[in-house]
């Protein structure tokens, strides 16, 4: 039996693979083909995961369900112990994990315990000059880096959906030869019950909902006017609300630093640790465009970005750009609209 | 309680970035400003808040970085840390997160709590904290958004942030390492008296051991992302830009 080259750790929510997990599977199948690898092993820990595992097996990949009471609920110490020994045993050369709150909690420790390399928030992978090149962003999105690993195993967290050449149609099927191999060996996902020494050092206390009222307008809005640190001060956020009132079905969102500063509540945050939105129009005001923020809004149909820095990362995803002082621009828009006699 | 805050000096967002194509590293020009990593400022503030609640708490700050990084340690002292340590790296060397963790580890032993930001603004790896917890063999919780010390039990109750604003609660036995998410608190500004006091403090300085671990990853090249070829910039003065903007919105049929 071939040792799988690439393993993927997936997350299940409401009985289905999460979107970041699907995107990580797409990334991993690309990685496997870059490596001319034959194996993709999909691991779903902590769940009774029969429906998602059948979905994966039907796509042609080997799926391993890690079940057991000790794996529920998520427990950092137990999962790190179980998964590091599992991956060590199965000898995966690459372990791809979605870049989610669970992913970044687990991944570095797994890399350390496997004695391997670690790359965080990888956006794409390609083959170049005989090497496997992983691309990620740094400096709040102002720079990109191409990286390679010098040792394996390598743990990679995948920043879902920022890979411009990911095939939206679904996971790549394995090559013909490996497909025959996999179908001969398995007809359903293997279930591997694992016992783990319960960790006495961390005790889970449960999950709690957000402290704030939900703000559903963001998900339902046609137009989102979003504000970043570039607004400069809380007092000027009124201009963003004024802008939003120019549109039907609009809402005001923001980036995380605006919430951190207390200028808007956390229920307005759009991004990796906030909401993901896909409005018809997203107007990014004074937003630099860090990968964490882009992860929450890059699927908007039309993106217009306003920023005084022409090099701001947001302009890489925007359809239209305005290089201007934000407050002057907003006042000019409102003045133009008022002069036209429209509603304020 | 003894708390150590691991702080990184990062390039200020306004600073121009230079990269040395040959040596594949980010250089620091004369105009480079270093400041405290955004997320570490929240970690420092959390340590100070704990110190205000728990008597006999000391807060120390440690940075692994080039000589110029001592500016952030001065800032830490000005803000309220009692002592600061600097493990100095040569200016042209950039340590990986694992190398940083291994360099810092011997100096992090003996603390009840080690705090650091969830990631740095420059590298954005989110690895140094968890690696340090592995080297120290202490439990680690990342992206912490609330903390409470349970002195009698020798534990902390923490909440970590997950998707959608949800929180996972944990009780953690000390000593432990927490990586701190932004928004957990509002970092304070130094007081004048503290600034004057900090000037008189000596930062313990040692060379960082840079060869204890070979890098396991390599940066092949840095590059600036393409200025989105697909992005159409609206030209003209502000009024003209505003007009074109409204025309686009009207054409999309979205204006009220």
Short description:
The complex is a heterodimer of chains A (344) and B (256). Chain A is an alpha/beta fold and 344 residues long.
- How many β-strand stretches of chain B? 15
> Can you summarize the main beta sheet of chain A?
7 strands, parallel
| Secondary-structure element pattern of chain B, one letter each | EEEEEHEHEHEHEEEEHEEEH
Order of helices and strands of chain A: EEEHEHEHEHEEEEEHEEHEHEHEHEEH
Largest interface: A-B, 100 and 83 residues
N- to C-terminal separation of chain A? 69 Å
The biggest sheet of chain B, with number of strands, parallel, antiparallel or mixed sense and barrel status, is:
9 strands, mixed
- Indicate the multimeric state: heterodimer
Mean pLDDT of chain B: 92
Q: Specify Rg of chain A, calculated over alpha carbons.
A: 22 Å
Which key phrases capture this entry?
heterodimer, A: 344 residues, alpha/beta, seven-stranded parallel β-sheet, five-stranded parallel β-sheet, B: 256 residues, two-stranded antiparallel sheet, 6 helices, globular
Verbal overview:
In chain A, strand 14, helix 7 and strand 15 form a beta-alpha-beta unit. Chain A is built from 10 helices and 18 strands. With 344 residues, chain A is of the alpha/beta class. Chain A is 29% helix and 27% strand. In chain A, helix 3 (76-90) crosses helix 4 (101-113) and helix 7 (237-244) packs parallel to helix 10. Chain A is elongated, with a radius of gyration of 22 Å. The model of chain A is unreliable at 162-188 (pLDDT under 50). Chain A has a 7-stranded parallel beta sheet, with helices on both faces. Chain A has a 5-stranded parallel beta sheet with strand order 15-14-16-17-18. Chain A has a 3-stranded antiparallel beta sheet with strand order 8-9-10. Chain B has helices at 38-53, 70-79, 97-108, 128-136, 192-199, 238-251, and strands at 2-6, 9-11, 18-20, 25-27, 34-36, 58-65, 83-88, 113-117, 140-150, 155-161, 167-173, 176-180, 204-207, 217-223, 232-233. Chain B has 256 residues and is an alpha/beta fold. The model of chain B has no long low-confidence stretch (mean pLDDT 92). Chain B contains 6 helices and 15 strands. Chain B is 27% helix and 31% strand. In chain B, strands 11-10-9-12-8-1-6-7-13 form a 9-stranded mixed beta sheet, sandwiched between helices. The interface between A and B is large, with 100 and 83 residues.
